[in-house]
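Researcher: Next entry in the queue.
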Amino acid sequence: MGKILWLASYPKSGNTWLRAFIHNLMRNPAAPVDINDMNTLTTGDSLVQWYRHLDPRPPLAWSREDVAKMRRGAQLAMVASKPDTVIVKTHNALLAPHGKQIIQMDLTAGAIYVVRNPLDLVISMADHYGVDIDKAIEVMNDPNNGGLADGNIVFEIHSSWSAHVRSWTQKPHPGLLVVRYEDMLAKPLHTFGGITRFMGLKTPRERLDRAIELSSFKNLRQQEEAKGFREKSERGTKFFRVGQAGQWRKVLTKAQIDRLVENHREQMQRFNYLPDQTPA
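Model: Structure for this entry, 280 residues:
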């Protein structure tokens, strides 16, 4: 029995891209790994399959408190499912609702946290959920925000963007790697190479380059256009939309920018996301 390596992020921050890279790196395929086949090496902490043995009732009957009490049992099932490290995606904040820790530290090997500029993230979120940008800003500012259960996934605790980022990154730890989405775009070799080293993988340069190319945004988008993507919201137009940084400069109004900065200034400053900061 191993432990969990968390792939953590606020929704629409690049978690799926990270998973695609890890699959292409570890499986070393001749063609890009199927985006609808990414549960082979990774799983998700909100999938109902990990909770069913803990409560025989229909999943939609489970309350938020029920799920909070079951999370440890679910994570024990995850680590028991493989003899070595289990790679698990989560959009949950590192919090303790109903007095129960979401992330079980004694079952954790480490975590990779992907952070993205909220000025760009809000545009992707609006499209994903089929709402306007003002509503998406409201959601990102809401400390009670979370993902709803649908019978296939359980309740998630997202909180506000700032609270989520703070919960995962406020305490530096050798078992935590924080990665900016913007660096995945601008400095892929450096950034994905760092991820590979953090995971303890000794990967030849040629294989690393290939994994980066196979999981490029272009390849991911082409796959979605050709055969769809199971994780796309029914309300969204595309899951893999633009794959660029700085869209906000052309899309957001000054009032929208000001609202986001007002609510998230501290965390934005930490990651060089304020509009008046020099890009990293």
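Model: The chain has one domain: 4-117+144-229.
Researcher: Noted, moving on.
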